[in-house]
Amino acid sequence: KITSLTALEVLDSRGNPTVEADITLEGGATGRALVPAGASTGEKEAVELRDRDPQRYGGLGVQKAVANVQGEISQAILNQELADQADLDHRLIALDGTPNKSRLGANALLAVSMAYARALAAANGKPLYRQLADQASYVLPVPCLNVLNGGRHADNNVDFQEFMIASHNAPTFAESIRMSVETFHALKALLKQKGYYTGVGDEGGFAPNLKSNEEAVELLLEAITKAGYRPGTDISLCLDPASSELWEKGKDGQPGQYRLFKSTQQTFTSAQFNDLWVSWVSQYPIILLEDGMGEDDWAGWQLHTQALGSKIELVGDDIFCTNPAILQAGIDQHIANSVLIKLNQIGTVTETLATVRLAQANGYNQFVSHRSGETEDTFVADLTVATGAGHLKTGSGSRSERIAKFNQLLRIERELGGAGRFAGIKAFKNQ
Ligand code: PGA
Ligand code: ZN
What is this model's ipTM? Predict the structure, then answer.
């Protein structure tokens, strides 16, 4: 039984309002959770309820979502006998009543759902990852650090959103994060040496203006070497170009195209854009490519999966939106071989876990993710360990809302001792 449920309008890492929920259970156990927010969001994501009052926070206030938690949601679930997480989440989904959680807000529902998971963990005297999945042993993930930011996450001229390094040749998570952060520092020194800007973007990676998108990859490879590691052997590259943001719909029945909006304005047909990725994958040690094609280009995604789906990991983010029904359609149409997992794309813990299980049952990998607007909440660290997803992306080597997740994983690794194993290269599809 939940005996108390409150919510508060707090701030995320971009200084935008978000929802925090606090739950107390009968017996006194408590749980708190904060909801993150995306910038390059998928069209089919569950709806974040914003006040749209231009007088407050430029319309981004969440007082309505907070009021929904303290009003309608509280009335429906306070002092009710709840069987488990799924019982609560199904009640929240039914109460909202819309397919995309637009009435009460996915931000309202998810804050309650996550806070309940934490309260149950406290009541059971378990760490959160064990509350989400009680197992004899666990896998610690390879962290993929987004050390160079572009696209909608940075005010530079780089078109592609995320250039990540994955330190997979390590015995432990702690060693992997050390290698990654050493490389982050080597990259900073390299940028300085070249006279480039070393300020960071939304996810804590550097955000310099560069001569080309290719130069971003070259800089990462040079930084890996400078830090004393072997590109491709110790540390490989992962990319999220966030191609939905580059897609221009075709007019009058014409096919759409991709455009490098921030740099050259060069355009590509779907087939040409896939060719670009095929050539990058043949030139560089890239083991994971997320959203190589846009969410509205299912035909392009099919072509892309035929070309690269047996070589590297192809992750669907915007195209699947952590939604089990959409993922099922993607599986049926042979699109991608991995799914990005973001709690707030779907809006409850139970549905997130359902998407993970659907992926597992169909041989798709799961890549767990933060959002570009984050908070100090470290739920995704525990979620990654609970699901055994084996890899996650949750920022770079700076900004505490990102580092908080890495620190939580370091604590979990210590706590697990012999019951935890570092995933290594096997975490990546086709490796
Ligand atoms: P977002 O970006 O959180 O701004 O949506 C992350 C991503 O595209 O993976
Ligand atoms: Zn993405």
Answer: 0.99
Q: Quick one: pLDDT band at residue 294, thresholds 50, 70, 90? A: very high
Q: Is the CB of 41 under 6 A from ligand 1?
A: yes
How does DSSP assign 283-351, residue by residue?
HS-EEEEESSS-TT-HHHHHHHHHHHTTTSEEEESTTTTT-HHHHHHHHHTT--SEEEE-HHHH-SHHH
How far, in Å, CA of 221 to CA of 232, rounded? 9
Q: Which of 43, 45, 44, 63 is nearest to 53 (CA)?
A: 63
Q: What is the pTM for the complete model shown?
A: 0.98
- Condensed to tens digits (0 to 9), the pLDDT of residues 310-360 reads 999 999 999 999 999 999 999 999 999 999 999 999 999 999 999 999 999
Residues with active-site annotation? 203, 342
Q: What CA–CA distance (Å, rounded) separates 232 from 341? A: 25
* Ligand 1 pocket, residue 393 CB under 6 Å: no
Is 26 assigned to a binding site? no
Has 377 been labeled as part of a binding site?
no
Q: What percent of the chain has pLDDT over 70?
A: 100
CA 112 → CA 6, 22, 77, 208, 348, distances in Å?
9, 8, 10, 39, 9
